[in-house]
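My hope is that you will study the protein record below before we discuss the fold together.
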Amino acid sequence: MSESVDFTWSPQPGDWRDALRTTVPVFRWAPWFAAVLAVLSVVVLLLGMLWAGVFGLVLAAVIAAMLPVQVTASFRNHPLAAKSVTGSADEHSLRMTAGESARSELDWTRLPGWTETARGFVLRTGEGTGAPAYAVPHRAFRDDADRDRFRALLTDRVGPAARRFPPRAT
């Protein structure tokens, strides 16, 4: 496999949200916590405790909305977020450029793991929840064949996909 796989995309807040859900536990569990809190609040309302039930429902709505709002705000305030990303991958490394300002080349040995979500690929560049991650959405590839070649490169050079990235104990 000596041919490179090229890709390009314009980032969206959903790409960041996808990476955060995969790598940061609070982003993964917050929607579930909000749903459980909402159900419990409805039970409290049915038991006749109006203020406690309403408070729980409001708090559940805040928790459910907080993370998407935070991601969107961070996305809009990031200097590289609106820059188109181009990249290529081959047997040796992954190269990406965001606009004219940021370039990175990562040898496959520097990527400890990756996972695939419904939206795309999330590449982890370090251990733990504070490590940077790259989100490469499926829409970045010209066709399914390029996406499959990229997945094969990841599998061959980094290893099998992880389900998610829990923080490792040190």
